[in-house]
From TrEMBL:
Domain of life: Archaea
Annotated segments matching region Disordered: 313-336, 437-463
Cofactor(s) essential for the protein: Mg(2+)
Function, in words: Catalyzes the phosphorylation of pyruvate to phosphoenolpyruvate.
Top-rank EC class of the record's enzyme: transferase
Protein name: Phosphoenolpyruvate synthase
Pathway(s) this gene product operates in, as recorded in its UniProt entry: Carbohydrate biosynthesis; gluconeogenesis
Catalytic activity, EC: 2.7.9.2
Biased composition (Basic and acidic residues): 437-459
GO molecular function, one term: pyruvate, water dikinase activity
Organism expressing this protein natively: Haloferax massiliensis
Family the UniProt entry places it in: Belongs to the PEP-utilizing enzyme family.
Length: 759
């Protein structure tokens, strides 16, 4: 038989229905409320490729060097075409369609989900590498099943199996077809506290479909429920601005604004909380381990959509009273009375620790693991200490400051712009910082969850929004590479090398003088390679050195740096590289070595160009360093009005891409220093003049075949995303913590454009 019903599937049917199918069948067999559905079995897929005689050709096509991105892409395309162009046998077609017509009333919207037989193994997780389709009808069902089969040979899946040494011909794939729940409300439930293991139910809930909650698109209500009394101990009602729903006309899953009268309304009734508590205890008892459950409510009924073990609870942690991550410290009251100072919440999260006042670089040695750094402003050579710290507080700076950017990439809570934190706080006192609210409170507060920066960055759902516009990620320091890669971004839109250089503690000239040219090249190669390896074969766009002289002046050898009234307008970017080619050529040598090592996913980007002369001179230096500009991807930053207005000449010089640096482009266009508090209120990346420069540049680049992207802070803002997608930008590079939100926003705008084109 081609299909089996979930009613007949159990946990030990993994080889027949894959991991997802086995889990859903087990829940169904336990009598839990699971939407009806069936599974197109893994053996059906195997019979399909073998009976059609494409199996040998299929497996041969994907036996490629997975470090060769071109070969990897060709393998994927060959495998996809083989499966999609091979007709499905008539008996299989009819059996799948007959089963579909038995779901609901025969014309139901269904979810079509891949369920590979090698998902969630102890030493390898293949989950998230295959496709999922929502709101599918009979018209597209068979094609979606074949798309799921073909997704077993996505570039990512081929690459991963090759690296793990897992034979391609040993993995089969089943497809779950399940009735969609047109949820009125939905969310997730933990049957134990996911960090401490405490015996309480944690529920998050929002209006509409659950994708918005598990992807982090919406801030959900949060309920903490006692398993002993069944009472809601705390209910935090969020401002729920958007919800995920099915569009009645198109059948597509879309985001809609929540009506004003429901934004602050409590999502769950007491009866619904009680029902979820009951179901949570049933599923935990059945599996005999704490569970992470996805659920939905429709027409008064609660449905279970997925259940998996909670993996974040430490072994042996039973959550008994008196145990906590704080070691028994008292909890701050979180009222206004205990707030010592306020600033701008620049990197989310809550952290407690001893305040370490850092007014000189010599003080960094005093920063121990878990301390809170309190300083006037952070500098690149503080990064090693920032990695040890539990949080960061600065007197100065905003959302684009070094402290804010690096803290977000490291997953460390930060509050910036406090004004006088270094004077108000005392060295050694215990404080708690809240990187969401921008407050610093006295005393220690245990965190709600054990912070795991990489896992926090990883999307809570493996279903990545499919977009024509690529969504990439910005990376400032190599240490953030793993966390950035975990977002599922399409690549790195900006990797800065200045932080790698500045953390050496010496100016490039002084370091080279003391250690030699080879050592300097090695430092750059090591840092860039760390990120390139995490993302391979996804592209990584590396920008050459762009640090103003005031940052170099803080380093050993900095006394030789020129003193400039406004370093942001001075000796930096490509102008410094071209004026001092002895250092610039070493950067290019590092890139050439990386290319020779096989990192063909690297792209070279030159900052602060003004005109074609800058580009042509940089291009000649590439050739002298052994980099063929005709074979490697390279381009420029558009950070000055001059570069935007001269884009045709830049394109004629041979660039492959142009990337907007909106931080600089905005301040140069509006004559506003973005770090000057007296004019900060008129700093606006969405100013009509800035948008016109960007829009006109994109239009010209599209005409001449040059790709465009954005890597400034504004790329993480919804309004800028909407503008860029409307104009046809090739890619958007967002901050690490904004990647999934930007993916969803891009998808929403692209869907609107498609709908507008056919109306």
């Amino acid at each position: 038989m081609a299909v089996v019903w979930l009613d007949d599937v159990r946990a030990d049917d993994l080889d027949l229905v894959g991991g997802k199918g086995a889990s859903l069948g087990e829940l169904t067999g336990a009598g839990l409320p699971v939407p009806p559905g069936f599974v197109v079995t893994a053996s059906t897929y195997r019979a399909f490729i073998e009976d059609a005689g494409i199996d040998d050709e299929l497996f041969a096509a994907v036996e490629v060097d997975h470090e060769d991105s071109a070969a990897l892409q060709a393998a994927h395309e060959t495998a996809h075409d083989l499966i999609m162009e091979t007709p499905m046998p008539d008996d299989v077609r009819e059996e799948i369609l007959d089963a579909y017509r038995s779901v609901g009333e025969g014309d139901a919207f269904v979810a079509v989900r891949s369920s590979a037989t090698a998902e969630d193994l102890p030493d390898a997780s293949f989950a998230g590498q295959q496709e999922t389709f929502l709101n599918v009808t009979e018209e597209d069902l068979l094609d979606r099943v074949k798309e799921c089969w073909a997704s077993l040979f996505s570039e990512r899946a081929i690459y991963y199996r090759n690296r793990k040494g897992f034979p391609h011909d040993k993995v089969d794939i089943a497809v779950v077809v399940q009735q969609m729940v047109d949820a009125e409300k939905s969310g997730v439930m933990f049957t134990r506290h996911p960090s401490t293991g405490k015996k309480e139910i944690i529920i998050e809930a929002a209006w509409g479909l659950g994708e918005a909650v598990v992807s982090g698109t919406v801030s959900p209500d949060n309920y903490v429920v006692s398993r002993e009394t069944g009472e809601v101990e705390t209910a935090t009602i969020a401002d729920k601005k958007t919800m995920c729903v099915r569009d009645e006309e198109s059948g597509e899953t879309v985001m809609r604004d929540v009506p004003n009268d429901r934004r602050h309304e409590r999502v769950l009734t007491d009866d619904e909380v009680s029902r979820l508590l009951e179901l949570g205890e049933l599923v935990e008892d059945h599996y005999e381990t704490p569970q992470d459950v996805e659920w939905a409510v429709y027409d008064g009924e609660v449905y279970m959509l997925q259940s998996r073990p909670i993996t974040t609870i430490a072994e042996g942690d039973d959550g008994e009273e008196g145990e906590s991550d704080s070691g028994g410290s008292s909890r701050a009251t979180a009222t206004g009375d205990d707030v010592l100072i306020r600033g701008l919440g620049a990197s989310p999260g809550i952290a407690s620790g001893r305040a370490r006042i850092v007014t000189k670089l010599d003080h960094l040695d005093q920063v121990a693991e878990g301390d809170i750094i309190v300083t006037e402003m952070t500098m690149p050579d503080m990064v090693p200490a920032m990695k040890r710290a539990a949080g960061i507080v600065t007197d100065e700076g905003g959302m684009t400051s070094h402290a804010a950017i690096v803290s977000r990439e490291l997953g460390v809570p930060a509050v910036v712009g406090t004004g006088d934190g270094t004077k108000t706080l005392e060295d050694g006192e215990i404080i708690t910082i809240d990187g969401d609210k921008g407050t610093i409170r006295e005393g220690e507060e245990p965190e709600e969850k054990q912070r795991q920066p990489v896992e926090e960055a990883r999307p809570k759902t493996p279903v990545k929004p499919m977009t024509a516009t690529e969504v990439k990620v910005n990376v400032s320091i190599p240490e953030a590479g793993e966390r950035a890669a975990a977002t599922g971004a399409d690549g790195v839109g900006l990797l800065r090398i200045e932080h790698m250089v500045l953390t050496l503690g010496k100016t490039p000239e002084r370091f080279i003088e003391q250690n030699g040219e080879r050592a300097y090249v090695d430092e750059i190669v090591s840092g860039v390679r760390e990120v390139a390896e995490e993302f391979y074969p996804r592209p990584v766009r590396v920008r050459t050195l762009d640090a103003p002289t005031d940052e170099f002046r803080q380093l050993e050898g900095g006394e030789n740096e020129p003193r400039e009234h406004n370093p942001m307008l001075g000796y930096r970017g490509i102008r410094r590289g071209l004026d001092n080619p002895s250092v610039f050529r070493l950067e290019l040598q590092a890139f050439r070595r990386l290319f020779d090592m096989g990192y063909d996913n690297l792209e070279v980007m030159f900052p602060l160009v003004n005109d074609a002369e800058d580009v042509l001179r940089a291009k000649e230096h590439m050739r002298e360093a052994g980099i063929d500009p005709e074979k490697r991807e390279w381009g420029v930053m558009i950070e000055t009005p001059a570069a935007a207005l001269c884009i045709e000449e830049l394109a004629d010089a041979g660039i492959d891409f142009a990337s907007f640096g909106t931080n600089d482009l905005t301040q140069y266009t509006l004559a506003v220093d973005r770090n000057n508090e007296h004019v900060a209120d008129i700093y606006d990346e969405l100013h009509p003049a800035v948008l016109k420069l960007i829009g006109d540049t994109i239009e010209t680049c599209r005409e001449v075949g040059v790709k465009t992207s954005i890597c400034g802070q504004a790329g993480s803002k919804p309004k800028m995303v909407q503008f860029l997608v409307d104009k046809g930008v090739s890619s958007i590079s967002a901050n690490i913590d904004a990647v999934r939100d930007v993916q969803h926003e891009v998808k929403r705008v692209e869907q609107r454009l498609l709908l507008d084109s056919v109306r």
